[in-house]
Write a structure and sequence with these properties.
Helix content: over 70%
Structural class: mainly alpha
Shape: flat
Oligomer: single chain
Length: 142
């Protein structure tokens, strides 16, 4: 009995909730609603423009006050010297800038050193195998 009473009470409420959810999905936008949405967007844009204008006005007033204080106390405006300005690439870096392959070769003395080392290695290998090849060819008697 108690189960039946609970089902009747909750069943009616669940049906009403289901009905409301069904109305949300198939709603078409009418011209009046589209016009209202457009007006709301225009008002939001207007408020944003007013906020930006107020902010610019306050910032201009602050800059005037800053300049007055600089003049009163003989302070210089903070500006970075050209040599003090960080490179745009290094703005947020903690470590040093990584070198490109060309920079690494230039730092090592250029690419000629590597070619000489490779040529020296090739000569060493050939000098090792030349006597062996001569012995093998003499053994088999060409």
């Amino acid at each position: 009995m108690a189960g039946m009473a609970a089902k009747m009470i909750l069943g009616n409420k669940l049906d009403s909730v289901k009905g409301e959810l069904g109305n949300l999905g198939g709603k078409e936008v009418t011209e009046e609603e589209a016009e209202q949405a457009r007006l709301i967007e225009e008002q939001r844009q207007e408020q944003e423009n007013e906020r930006k204008a107020r902010h610019e006005k306050m910032e201009a007033e602050r800059e005037v006050e800053r300049q007055r204080i600089r003049e009163k106390y003989g302070l210089k405006k903070k500006t970075l010297e050209k040599e003090e300005q960080p490179e745009p690439d290094d703005a947020g870096r903690i470590s040093r800038k990584k070198k490109t392959p060309a920079e690494m070769q230039a730092a090592m003395g250029g690419g000629a050193v590597e070619e000489e080392e490779e040529q020296g290695l090739a000569d060493t290998v050939m000098n090792f195998f030349t006597p062996l090849t001569e012995k093998i060819t003499s053994f088999f008697g060409k």
